[in-house]
Amino acid sequence: MRGSRIIIPSCLRLELFDSIHKGHQGIGKCRERAKQYVWWPGLATQIADLVYKCSTCSHGSREIREPLISGGGGISITPLAGYWHRSLLF
């Protein structure tokens, strides 16, 4: 044990990573989830490496999306009095 976390032997780390990374929510969420319950030397680095190598995660993060509102169409969004208020000016 390391504090209240279980030390995971190297032979079980990939299997554990698969369950931690099941939702493909990125490095931060995986580290957060792992650090609640488990520990091993190099945990944060290994999680980062495995997430970078994940084809599902890398495909989603590199996908280029078009903006919802383009800046060149003569439309600008101007904030009004409150945070949630927006106005379209033509």
UniProtKB/TrEMBL annotation:
Domain spans labelled Integrase zinc-binding: 8-58
Alphabetical list of Pfam families matching this protein: Integrase_H2C2
InterPro entries cross-referenced by the UniProt entry: Integrase_H2C2, Retrovirus_Pol_polyprotein
Name of protein: Integrase zinc-binding domain-containing protein
